[in-house]
Amino acid sequence: MAKNGLITVESRFGVTETIDRLTEVVTRAGLLVFARIDHAAGARDVGASLRPTELLIFGNPKGGTPLMQDRQLAGIDLPVKALAWEDAQGKVWFSYNDAHWLAERHGLGDASREAVAAIAAGMDKVVTTAAGASLS
Fold first, then answer.
1. 17 vs 60: CA distance, rounded Å
2. Phi, psi dihedrals of residue 94, rounded to the nearest 5°
3. Using only C-alpha atoms, what is the Rg of the chain?
4. Residues 35-73: pLDDT tens digits?
5. Which residues lie closer than 8 Å to 29 by C-beta, 6 or more apart?
C-alpha cells in the first residue's frame, strides 16, 4: 500500500499526451470519462502560472457502487481520478489514489473486497499503459 495513499509513476510523455493516452485506454476498456480538468489553464485564467497539470476523472458504476454499498461515504473518492503533472525539472508524473488505501480510509470490508482489488488492478494497468511505464 502506498504510504500516503498515492501511487506515482513517471510518464514517458508530456502531460497532455499522457492524459490523451489515458482517455483512449479507459474508453477502450469500457469505462466512462466524466471530466478532464486542465489546472494550468485554470491558473492562466486567473493570471497565475502553474506547470502543466491535468486531471482525468473516470470509472464505471459497476466498479464503484460496491464500495458505496459497503460504506456510502466512499463516494467522496469516486469516481477514480488520475493526475498528470510536470515537476520543476520538466519530468512528467502520473499520480492516483491507491484503491487499498481508499478501502482502509473508509473502513471497507468483505462486501467490497473484490471490487477494491479489481479497481487496484485496473488502475495499475490503465495508468502504466498510458504512461508507457511499469510500476516499481
1. 23
2. -130, 120
3. 15
4. 999 999 999 999 999 999 999 999 999 999 999 999 999
5. 122, 126
66 preceded by a cis bond (ω within 30 of 0): no
Give the DSSP H or E segment for 12: none
pLDDT at 135: 47
Q: Comparing C-alpha atoms, which of 14, 132, 114, 28 is closest to residue 64?
A: 114
Cβ pair 7, 98 in contact under 8 A: yes
Q: Please, are residues 85 and 53 in contact by the beta-carbon 8 Å criterion? A: yes
92-97 and 6-11 beta bridge pairing: antiparallel
Extract the C-alpha cell encoding 16: 497532455
Q: Tell which residue, 68, 75, 82, has the closest CA to residue 125.
A: 82
The pLDDT value given to residue 133: 73
Task: Kindly list the strands in the beta sheet with 80-86, ordered across the sheet, starting from the edge strand earlier in the chain.
Answer: 6-11, 92-97, 80-86, 53-59, 32-38
Percent of the chain with pLDDT over 90: 94
